[in-house]
Amino acid sequence: MAKTKDSAKEKKKKAKRISYHKQPEEMSLRDWQIGLRQQFGKEQKFELTNVGGHPVWSDFTVGNPESNAVYRLALRGQAPGDNFCSCLDFATNGLGTCKHIEWALHKLQHTYGNKQHFKKPPPERAYSSVYLHHGEERTLRLRIGTDQEEAFRKLAKGYFDEDGVLYPHAYLEIDKFLDAARQLSPDFRCYPDALDFVIQKRDDARRHLLADRLDNDPNSLEGLIDTQLFPYQREGVLFALRAGRCLLADEMGLGKTIQAIATAELYRRELGIGSVMIICPTSLKYQWRAEIRKFTESTVSVIEGPMHKRREQYLDNENFYKIITYNVVARDYEYINQSLPDLIILDEAQRIKNWDTKIARAVKRLEAPYRMALTGTPLENKLEDLYSIVQFLDQHLLGPLYLLLHRHQVKDETGAVRGYRRLDEINEKLRHVMIRRRKREVLKQLPERIDQHLLVPMTPRQMELHNSFESDVAQLVAKWRRLGFLKEQDRQRLLSCLNLMRMSCDSTTRSTSKPATIPRSANCSTSSKSAY
């Protein structure tokens, strides 16, 4: 008896914790990630509600009291891959499980009266269903139940292969199968995420055909905006149309703003969208408004002010473009989603390169069928920067972060990152969503250099200071001419007064001490060779 108690105590001792930062040598990458979710899940305090019939193998909702998030859960077995959760981690990790599933299994297994259900196989499901399988690549699949089994197998031929995976050509014909399946059995199910996936595939095919047709017509984008697009800009606009969710990563000065505005106008003309939400740094919001007014006749508003005012502006349907800042998104993402934007344009997208910030998480919660990210530096310091930006466009494109880093990071014996490998694989994955051109590649398409000289008059106070310093300079120059030389003290004073004359052209608050550098003068000169 004593030995039994001792062994029970030994088991009850807290098990060796799995390291979050380093993969244990005795565990595979997949087992490590599943183990982390099991470990983390058992520690959570979620709320579970059974919305099905069986006490364990049923449909549930899982609520997180801290975040007020609620997820749909379907428990069908104990092994990874048997179950489903509507959370983002389940959809992207490729493991077939998540912390919500592991928590629910642990809770149900330790609930009085449920152990018997874990000792025997789950009951067979009579109904058949079409569902979205979340692996490294998402696929639409058919599971055939016991009800009308032979009839469903016969119906599935021509639509699904032997493993139950939908043929690529069958996305356009799936409606016929769904109608026939519902007639076979009223209990047949096609889950919402599966339908959304079908709709996305069809929309992609439609846009590709449309982009090809416009690309074959050299005048197809004429009059889209009030300026002539350069050839590479036209290419960028059609690329964005074909992609639906696009990362425009041209170098600075190549007109990313113009391409984004032209893309929005093309979406309105060809796809019938009704609203565009532009997210940008605070310093650029009025510049965006000015550019939209300059190149289009569309209505535009900058959303600002107290919370109740912003809520009213989100629901205002009079303006095609709405402009907000990153800081506002962190507080207002729920209201933004309620306004149902059709296209979201993310300017200076490197602002969300740190995926764990409040702003980055809020931006990725925004919902819109079409998205566009603009940045001249998609990859600055590490691979996670690019991953975070791509997450805004498509959460599934690069797969789970742990697997991406495992494949492409090079680490030394201490675990420090020393470099990257097989980056061509990432380029291949991004080929359909990211376009990047450098100035040297399109230099011949750019206009000749334009010099603009802007003469800015000084204020009376600036003129007063400028003239006083000018008087001192005149006296010192006269002394120099009379004597033929200046003492070092007078020479330093002369240089100081000349600098102060220049400074007074810029600001009256900076012209009372010797400057460290020479500021710009009232006669400003700017030159550039860029695409607007």
Indicate the topology:
Layout: H1 2-12, H2 29-42, E1 47-50, E2 59-64, E3 69-74, E4 84-85, H3 88-93, H4 99-109, H5 115-119, E5 129-133, E6 139-143, H6 149-156, H7 174-184, E7 189-190, H8 192-216, H9 231-243, E8 245-248, H10 256-271, E9 276-280, H11 285-295, E10 300-302, H12 307-314, E11 321-325, H13 326-338, E12 343-346, H14 358-364, E13 370-374, H15 383-393, H16 401-408, E14 409-411, E15 417-420, H17 423-430, E16 434-435, H18 439-442, E17 450-455, H19 460-483, H20 488-506, E18 523-528
Parallel strand pairs: 5-7, 8-13, 8-16, 9-11, 9-12, 10-11, 12-13
Antiparallel strand pairs: 1-2, 2-3, 3-4, 5-6, 14-15, 17-18
Helix pairs in contact: 2-4, 6-7, 8-9, 9-10, 13-14, 19-20
